[in-house]
Each structure stands twice: as structure tokens, then as C-alpha cells.
Design brief:
five-stranded mixed sheet; binds NADP nicotinamide-adenine-dinucleotide phosphate; 2 domains; about 25% helix; ten-stranded mixed sheet; Dihydrofolate Reductase, subunit A; 8 helices
Length: about 325
């Protein structure tokens, strides 16, 4: 099983540069290793003198291009199934295995964001830390910390790679998270809270400490609040559809969204098939009671469950599963 390196390997700044590049030009790109470290480049830049090159295929043209290059390189190919993301190695393998594992975990997020932009839709990654028996918190609501330090760093990397980080009102009330990037270098995502009732707007929470937090609500009477962007959206019985929430993000120029919990919110998106990538952290703990990660309508048979393609990553004695809904895999 691939380990997730921690702390940041040298390739992280290049991933952040790629994120910026993809916001401007959602096209194939290259990560280039030189004596001075890693950087991000266009595929037709002069790559001579590079120690290693990783091409990232978004349009599918790159493998041919790379095969013509007379230098060792790796090609990251987002595809389908277990090969949802895979490596081609024309020539010798130039990049350290730990770096390839690191890129393997985070490149699907960047590629997904770029692909979503090309398709004019928001890309959604969800992430939960749960126990062996599927709980994300005790019955009291305490959830800190089911995950470990490596998972916390991973969560901050995911915040930095997405345009928005979204949590449900229950998580704000219980955990009062800041939703900022602090464990790693990186840009700050827009903070978004889903609160059908709008009651989050009456509390004094840390998400409101800086200007620009977006609250998605079904409450048309929600009073304005200074420095908060309130989106009063159409609902069904007080519930917002995941598509409606995503449309509100898209309107604000937010192409990618990291769902950080809790279970009710993630389940809303899963039920609507609006999760593109699910990162499920499994901790070696059994609670035997508590708040479940997923609550969905009853299914009659196992065949009616939502299926995923999974790739495991080791996280300091815990396991992180990268899961792609099988329906998406079949369509890709
Ligand atoms: N282990 C982890 O990874 C993790 C991560 C995050 C949180 N947590 C824990 O999870 C617990 C909170 O989770 P939770 O499931 O109870 O709550 P939650 O998902 O954080 O928030 C639920 C609230 O979000 C709003 N909401 C969700 N879906 C909606 C929809 N479709 N339409 C409109 N509003 C919607 C509603 O707000 P209104 O009531 O305002 O309508 C709802 O009451 C806490 O104990 C927290 O510590 C654990």
C-alpha cells in the first residue's frame, strides 16, 4: 500500500503552481524536477536539462507527446476503474516512488477540477474520518480526533487544492472550525456553510471571523449579516438539492468544492451522485455507537448500494481510501 508522505515533499509547491495554472488554462501540463526543485510548466516549454518530468494528461494527447521526448519521464493518465489514475513510464522510471505516490493521491483532484471546468460543472471531493464501525463522532458529537496528524495535514492539503471548503451547520455548531489552511502552505479556499434553516447565521462562529464566508440557505427571510455572502436558494421542504448548492458555487466562480463533513451533508451530496471523489479515512477505533458517516434511504438489496473503485494509501497506521463512484468510472 502506498504511504502518504508527511511532511510535504518537495513536489507540493509545484502542485500549487499547477493549481494556479489550471485556473487560467485547464490544459495538459508538466511537473518538472530540476536541481533547484520542482516546478510546473506547459508541455511544450523547453524541458531540456530537467532531471525528471511528469506529464499530466487532461486532454489525452500527452502520452504520444511524451513518447517522442528523448528524456526519462512519467505520464499521469486519469482514466477509469482501478486505473482511474495510473502511470505510464516511457523509458526508465525517473521519479522517486514516494513522490509518485504523493502525486498519485493529489493529481486526481487537480485533473478533476480542470475537467469539471471544461464541462462547466463544480468538481466535488468529500473527505471523512471514520472509525472501523463507520462512526464520524461520538453520540455527544465529539469527533476530535478520530483521524491522526497525517490526516489533518491531508485535510489542509485538500483545502488548499480546492476553491471552496464546505461544511454543514451541525459541524460549525459542534466544532466551530476555522476552515483555513494552516498545516501546509497554500491558498485559502472560500468557506461555505450549508444551513437550510439559516440558523448558523445567528451564531458567533470562527468561519465568520474573516469576510467572504458563503452561507447556502433555504431561509428566504434570513437577515443579512455583515461580511457574509448569503445565498437564499430554492428548496424542497427546507432541504437544498446538491445541484442547487453547486450551481450557487459555480455562480461565484468556485469550480471545485471540498466537502469536509459532517455525515448529513456528505450524504446529501452522495445521494444526489454529486461526489466525484471520496477520501475516506479509516481509523483503528471501534465506538459501537455515535454519529454515522453516511445516512441514506434504505436499500432493498446489496446490489442497490452505491459502489466505488478504491485505492488505499497508508497514513501512519491508519488507512486512507480514495474512492470513485463506479457509475462515474463506467461513464468515463
Ligand atoms: N470525522 C469527521 O471526518 C467529521 C467531519 C466533520 C464533522 N464531523 C462531526 O460530525 C458531526 C456533525 O455532523 P452532522 O451529520 O450531524 O451535521 P452536518 O452535516 O455538519 O450538518 C447538518 C446540517 O447541515 C444542513 N444541511 C445538510 N444537508 C442539507 C440539505 N440538503 N439542505 C439544507 N441543509 C442541509 C442542515 O442545517 P440546518 O439545520 O440549518 O437546516 C443540517 O442540520 C459533528 O459531531 C462533527 O464533529 C466529523
Amino acid at each position: 500500500m502506498s504511504p502518504v508522505p508527511s511532511p510535504d515533499p518537495a513536489a507540493w509547491p509545484a502542485l500549487l503552481a499547477a493549481r494556479t495554472r489550471l485556473r487560467q488554462t485547464p490544459q495538459d501540463f508538466a511537473l518538472v524536477q530540476r536541481a533547484g526543485g520542482w516546478s510546473c510548466a506547459a508541455i511544450d516549454d523547453d524541458l531540456h536539462g530537467a532531471a525528471a518530468v511528469v506529464f499530466v494528461a487532461i486532454t489525452g494527447v500527452i502520452p504520444l507527446h511524451a513518447a517522442r521526448l528523448a528524456m526519462p519521464c512519467s505520464v499521469f493518465v486519469p482514466g477509469s476503474g482501478a486505473a482511474a489514475a495510473s502511470w505510464l513510464h516511457p523509458g526508465e522510471r525517473p521519479v522517486a516512488a514516494t513522490t509518485l505516490d504523493f502525486l498519485r493521491l493529489y493529481l486526481p483532484v487537480l485533473v478533476g477540477c480542470a475537467t469539471a471546468w471544461r464541462q462547466q460543472r463544480v468538481f466535488v471531493t468529500a473527505h471523512l474520518a471514520q472509525t472501523l464501525d463507520g462512526r464520524i463522532a461520538c453520540t455527544s458529537g465529539q469527533s476530535q480526533w478520530i483521524g491522526n496528524q497525517a490526516n489533518l495535514i491531508h485535510a489542509h492539503r485538500l483545502r488548499a487544492l480546492h476553491d471552496a471548503v464546505l461544511v454543514g451547520c451541525g459541524t460549525v455548531e459542534r466544532d466551530d472550525p476555522q476552515l483555513t489552511v494552516r498545516q501546509v502552505d497554500g491558498p485559502q479556499p472560500r468557506r461555505v456553510v450549508l444551513s437550510g434553516s439559516g440558523r448558523v447565521l445567528t451564531g458567533d462562529y470562527r468561519v465568520f471571523a474573516a469576510a467572504g464566508c458563503v452561507v447556502l440557505t433555504a431561509n428566504r427571510q434570513a437577515a443579512p449579516r455583515a461580511r457574509v455572502d448569503i445565498a437564499r436558494l430554492p428548496d424542497e421542504g427546507g432541504r437544498l438539492a446538491a445541484d442547487t448548492a453547486c450551481a450557487a458555487l459555480w455562480q461565484r466562480g468556485l469550480w471545485s468544492c471540498y466537502l469536509e463533513g459532517g455525515g448529513t451533508t456528505v450524504s446529501t451530496f452522495l445521494q444526489s451522485r454529486r461526489i466525484d471523489l471520496l477520501h475516506l479515512h479509516l481509523a483503528p477505533i471501534v465506538l459501537g455507537s455515535g454519529i454515522p458517516g453516511f445516512s441514506l434511504p434504505e436499500v432493498a438489496t446489496i446490489a442497490d448500494g452505491t459502489r466505488f473503485q478504491m485505492q488505499p494509501f497508508a497514513l501512519d497506521g491508519h488507512v486512507l481510501f480514495e474512492c470513485r463512484p463506479e457509475a462515474d468510472v463506467a461513464a468515463s
